[in-house]
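User: I'm new to structure prediction. If I give you an amino acid sequence, what do you actually give back? Let's try with this one:
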Amino acid sequence: VSWIRKRDLHILTVGILTYTNDQRFQSLHSDGSDEWTLRITSPQIKDSGTYECQVSTEPKISQGFQLNVVISKAKIIGNTEMYIRSGSDINLTCVVLETPDPPSFIYWYRDRDVINYSGRGGISVVTEKQTRTSRLLISKAQPPDTGNYTCAPSASDSASVTVHVLNGEHPAAMQHGNSSNSAVTRLLPIFLLFVCHSIQVLLVTDVYAPVRSVKLTAR
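Assistant: Good question. You get back a string of structure tokens that encode the predicted 3D arrangement of the chain. For your 219 residues, that looks like this:
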């Protein structure tokens, strides 16, 4: 049994032997089992494509797997730089994109600190896991509330905006920037498992990084 990457016809494994210098690829097989598994550790965007399991019978049979690796990320609606008049509210909405499951948590930071709900008062966060959104409201903002606000969901890239709270003596600055949301990419160690049995169907899967494991089985 061989595993082949179709885009460059590279033979990744034959039996339990690996034929690539990329140590993220590994073939797994248990004695007496009809399963041959291709494991990809820490999958990356470049790993997207078709992988084929080939069985050297007569006639030869094969099974194709279409893999799409997608990075889950957060987006704060609006611009990445905001100017707020002192006494107005700061209202930020964060949406988590490209994720198959709701995040287990969404944290909000100002600069490097988790936002403290009890110290200042007037701060509320409403998180709706099913819609993958979180809303941060800071009532009656004051200049000390100026800073970089970050939405950080579990297992996803974060997104940030910079908020300036002005006393009102600079009305020309009361406008929004036009830059796009920024995020720092995080790909945590994960595994992809392709399992080859008898060959009958073509499977297509989207993998949202980071996830814990994906197992594809052709029966």
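You can read the tokens as a compact description of the fold. Here is one thing that stands out. Residues 2-71+187-218 form a domain with the Immunoglobulin-like fold (CATH 2.60.40.10).
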